[in-house]
Amino acid sequence: MAVLPEQSARLDWADVRVAVAKLPHKQREALLLVGAEGFSYDETAWICGVAIGTVKSRVNRARRRLTELLVLDDNDEFGPDRRLQAACVSGLCA
Q1: pLDDT at position 3, please?
Q2: Is the pTM of this model over 0.70?
Q3: CA 77, CA 71: separation in Å to the nearest integer?
Q4: Distances (CA, A) of 18 to 68, 73, 79
Q5: Could you give the domains of the chain?
Q6: Taking a C-beta distance cutoff of 8 angstroms, is the pair 59, 35 a contact?
Q7: What is the per-residue pLDDT across 63-88, written as a single tens digit (0 to 9) for each?
Q8: How far is CA 49 from the centre of its chain?
């Protein structure tokens, strides 16, 4: 297998979008400004009109909630699923 199948990534992205939509507005806003838009915590605090500690707290809560909603363990990594990892370990990926 030279290329990873695209449908898996699309399904994963759909799951992330649904989970992000379930976050409270203020947590979603902070997470997207920091994580997706690349704003610093300081910039996000200014945009939202709150203290930097509030932004850090909201982002942290949002990340923890996404982990719960997406049923991720601390050991899980983003990337190939277990079947693909097993195939690569057995030498089927080159």
Answers
A1: 63
A2: no
A3: 12
A4: 13, 19, 19
A5: 18-89 (1.10.10.10)
A6: yes
A7: 999 999 988 655 555 555 555 555 55
A8: 24
